[in-house]
Amino acid sequence: MKTVRESSKEWMKNPKFREAYDALEPEYAMASAIIEARIKSKLSQAQLARRMKTTQPMIARMESGRQPPSTATLLKLAKATGTRLQIRFVEA
Predict the structure, then answer these.
(1) CB distance 48 to 37 below 8 Å
(2) What band does 67 get if pLDDT is binned at 50, 70 and 90?
(3) Burial class (CB within 10 angstroms; exposed 0-12, middle 13-18, buried 19+) of 33
(4) Which range of residues forms the domain containing residue 69?
């Protein structure tokens, strides 16, 4: 049986798979940044949810990339984690 790593190497050889995978990168980068802010603030998902006046499952959905947050939600997250929201565009 192949490992996930072995399978993903094989899948990446498929141009259609690679294109779809690359298209998801911004969403996963956002999810990663949310997780990083929470962890650096030493907060659990439940603690962050209380500070943001939302639910733990909502935090979990944002961290999984399944629920893209609005700018208003990101501002609440920044306040709750003691960080500052910075959005920018870079050259493609």
Answers:
(1) no
(2) confident
(3) middle
(4) 4-80
State pTM to two decimals.
0.80
Q: What does the block give as tokens for 65?
A: 């990339």
The answer to whether residue 13 sits within a structural domain is: yes
Give how many domains the chain has, as a whole number: 1
Confirm whether 40 is domain-assigned: yes
Q: Per the domain annotation, does 89 fall within a domain?
A: no
Structure confidence by residue, pLDDT tens digits, 24-48: 888 899 999 999 999 999 999 999 9
Whether 85 maps to a domain, the answer reads: no
